[in-house]
DNA sequence: CTTATGCCTTGATCCTTGTCAAAAGCGGGC
DNA sequence: GCCCGCTTTTGACAAGGATCAAGGCATAAG
């Protein structure tokens, strides 16, 4: 088992996080998709007074595995990873979150996994205590949080099938299709992956070499095309879909 | 990849499930631990009128992967597995549930995984629509459901680390300690596993042969003791704990 | 434009685990 | 108490993927 101690990943928040408290919900790009959607103006306003905007740079960590659960947040934009690791440094990415997703552990003392920005990102950050109190008083918000948590659980369990039972080929194919669904391709049909090869390996429970070999092979057979380090074009999605469940 | 089509596992519910509608919540053994705990007498009574008790035999399936989500339930006693599989028959167990746990997919159209009894079991079964309506009107119940779902998600993510990054030895050690925590040992310190070797393999994302070899080896080194097919004694929990994260 | 720094790719080899096959042993039924 | 069926164990072998080791190539800095 290889060990990595990736210092760049562990940059703590700067002493004073760049807060944009002046920003309100009115011009928030995720207001209709995040859990705050459905709140009336007064409630949304009350919630916004609890939170503050925070900007993160790629590589910054907001929450640590096993640390006190002091904050929760909505993702305004950017991509972040949720990860756990063994004592000897093996890492497993247990979730990737995007704009409008919710992060952190409400109603619990500890954060069971770390949260780290993969790209530059903006969050709408709430102290957990205040957020918990607000949620308890607003059934609609709690309901949306429940819906989202149930969906997360479904997705997570589907991923367990991949980790436990799929081959390297199937894992990579599933991953690429999943990225194609979540990320928008540019005019040339190229997707800009928010993850490095190592991080893809950490999502799939395999190694960087295996990911690289599988992707190269898929390029050779014309199923995908690789553009620079982070670019992928899904040339033949049907073929990719087929690779999802067969030798 | 091996394929199994385990017919005994797929026994459908009998045409008329043995219902014990006469049973009330008053003498329910899980009333203080299931999500209904915390409801006042009137509300609990209303909820009980929605549900009915059902008895399952080991091997019976209550919900199917991808099927309509028509019912949800509290487990009164027994052990059940949650599972997903690939089109070619590889199975991954994504959860094991015990007395007082909640099963099924509220607030969603489809059940994303199957639910099958591992031992004889009793459920308190609710039609999903009625349950959803009740939950929407009772914030306390919804809050308990949220708490439980958040805990499930945390446990599930912890299990992803096992599936993606742990060795066979570490997987089996982690599994045995987990069982030791959840199940009570008898006077001799022997735990009666609710899972066959194959099912253990399906939980750990490995094969029956690997599970067997690891357990035999642990017995040889005196860390555990094997008693019949389903019995295990955790002789040296500290040593087992050590095997959880090292070669 | 040139150079330097990491990522990423590629190659060779090893080894853990999966696969195939058969023997052993537990448990239930007669 | 004995036998039969099925689970579990054990063995031999194969292979997919991990590990070790260079080398190539984007990307950013000078």
TrEMBL record, chains A, B:
Molecular-function annotations in GO: DNA binding; DNA-binding transcription factor activity
Gene3D superfamilies in alphabetical order: Jelly Rolls, Winged helix-like DNA-binding domain superfamily/Winged helix DNA-binding domain
Occurrences of domain Cyclic nucleotide-binding (ranges): 35-152
GO (cellular component) term, any one: cytosol
Domain spans labelled HTH crp-type: 166-238
Origin: domain of life: Bacteria
Keyword entries, A-Z: DNA-binding, Transcription, Transcription regulation
One Pfam entry name: cNMP_binding
Keyword Cell inner membrane: no
Record-linked InterPro entries: cNMP-bd_dom, cNMP-bd_dom_sf, Env_Response_Regulators, HTH_CRP, RmlC-like_jellyroll, Tscrpt_reg_HTH_Crp-type_CS, WH-like_DNA-bd_sf, WH_DNA-bd_sf
Presence of keyword Transcription regulation: yes
PANTHER family: CRP FAMILY TRANSCRIPTIONAL REGULATORY PROTEIN, FUMARATE AND NITRATE REDUCTION REGULATORY PROTEIN
Name under which the protein is recorded: Crp/Fnr family transcriptional regulator
Protein source organism: Sphingobium limneticum
Lineage of origin: Bacteria, Pseudomonadati, Pseudomonadota, Alphaproteobacteria, Sphingomonadales
């Amino acid at each position: 088992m290889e060990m990595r101690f990736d210092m760049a990943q562990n940059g703590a928040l700067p002493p004073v996080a760049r807060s944009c408290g002046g920003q309100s919900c009115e011009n928030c790009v995720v207001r209709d998709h995040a859990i705050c959607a459905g709140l009336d103006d007064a409630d949304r306003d009350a919630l916004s007074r609890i939170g503050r905007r925070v900007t993160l740079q790629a590589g910054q960590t907001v929450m640590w595995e096993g640390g006190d659960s002091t904050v929760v947040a909505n993702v305004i934009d950017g991509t972040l990873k949720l990860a756990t690791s063994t004592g000897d440094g093996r890492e497993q990415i247990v979730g990737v979150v995007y704009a409008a997703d919710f992060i952190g552990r409400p109603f619990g003392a500890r954060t069971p996994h770390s949260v780290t920005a993969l790209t530059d990102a903006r969050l709408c950050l709430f102290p957990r205590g205040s957020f918990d109190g607000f949620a308890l008083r607003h059934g609609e918000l709690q309901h949306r949080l429940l819906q989202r948590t149930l969906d997360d659980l479904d997705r997570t369990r589907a991923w367990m099938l991949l980790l436990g039972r799929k081959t390297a080929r199937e894992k990579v194919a599933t991953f690429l299709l999943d990225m194609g669904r979540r990320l928008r391709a540019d005019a040339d049909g190229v997707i800009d992956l928010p993850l490095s090869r190592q991080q893809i390996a950490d999502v799939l429970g395999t190694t960087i070499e295996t990911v690289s070999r599988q992707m190269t092979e898929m390029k050779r057979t014309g199923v995908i095309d690789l553009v620079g380090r982070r670019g992928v074009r899904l040339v033949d999605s049907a073929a990719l879909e087929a690779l999802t469940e067969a030798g």
